[in-house]
Amino acid sequence: MPSRLPLHDRHLAARARVETVGDWELPVDYGDAAGEYAAARRGVALADRGDWGALEVTGRDRATFLHALLSNEIKALAPGQGCRAALLDAHGKVQVVLAVWVLEDRILLVMPRGLTAKISQALDHYLFSEKVSLRDASDETGLLMLAGPEGPAVIARLTSTRPPAQAWSHLAATLDGSAVRLVTGGRETGGPEIWVACAATDGPRVWDALVAAGARPLGFSAYEALRIEAGTARVGDDVDESVLLPEIPLTDLVSYTKGCYPGQEVVVRVRDRGHVNRLLTGLVLEGHAVPPRGAEVVAGGGVVGRVTSATRSFGLGLTIALAFVRREHAEAGRAVAVRLGEGTVPARVAALPFGPQASV
Fold first, then answer.
1. pLDDT by residue (tens digit) across 18-36?
2. pLDDT tens digits along 93-147
3. Which CATH number covers residue 194?
4. 3-state SS class at 268
């Protein structure tokens, strides 16, 4: 049975159309996906991120322990700062992409909820004499995200606090009597974002306050259009354990000066002396048909890649996709095709993020 979001009843009350997406029942839209998209681009929209969870890391050695395992700089982060990072295996394959939030007394690793137990076990494998404890805090943590340029103003009205400017920086505040943590997002939707973390029991109250302040509920369809336009890889769809970190956009995931971590040799070797055989890139397709995950990308009579996620772009008025494409075919502007049923649809490789220049 698929899991339900903690705010499932709130979505039903807002007349959400709920469908199963992977392991979750998600609000696909609230009757007007295009309007929800527009709110995120020009106003403010509110997404329930309850399908994400938090792994709590405590103990005096927590920062040095995580620094030695994750792909980004951790040790130098002060309380109130954060980053994105990946945990790799020894071969450079991605186990998870996550957000790191450093607090005074703990570090929170925020990731898809279905991976928290697995990642906790993977980290525990590296524990020897370090003073570190790992605890899954997902069930007690509520996670929401405001998307859109008016988000900071809404938060300022409700909390008398302005979120930090730097991505993944955060601070404590009070919203309608509930203690919250305001985290500036990393623009996974292509625009300003503010994560609002609270106690799970306060989630409904915080949701109601944000909606009352003008935030429009954002369903999965509109969110996917925002995410894919921004070229943001989704863990589980675009990124899994078969993916080498250098095959995906990694600018904000990697520190090349921090020293060793599992898989680091592969990442540096690709940067300095080699290349990967495929790259995650964008595709723009002719027509309105949206290809399924796994659809073959073809060129020159052979298969040169596979679609990982796709959508109809509300902003561009085009069908767009993310796909792994062989390096020799991954140049922006290269003509390819996507197999749909018994036929193919013409497509063109596009640079990420998608922009007004995207065309077929």
1. 999 999 999 999 999 999 9
2. 999 999 999 999 999 999 999 999 999 999 999 999 999 999 999 999 999 999 9
3. 3.30.1360.120
4. helix
Domain count for the chain: 2
Cα(219)–Cα(197) distance, integer angstroms = 19
Q: What is the DSSP letter of 140?
A: G
Q: Is residue 32 located within the same domain as residue 12?
A: yes
Same domain, 217 and 170: yes
**DSSP helix, strand, coil percent of the chain (3-state; round to 5):** 25, 35, 40
Q: State the DSSP string of 25-76.
A: EEEEESS-HHHHHHHHHHS-EEEE-TTEEEEEEESTTHHHHHHTTBSS--TT
> What is the chain's alpha carbon radius of gyration, rounded to the nearest angstrom?
20
Q: Which residues pair with 340 in a beta bridge?
A: 343
Same domain, 119 and 180: yes
What six digits make up the tokens of 146? 């405001």
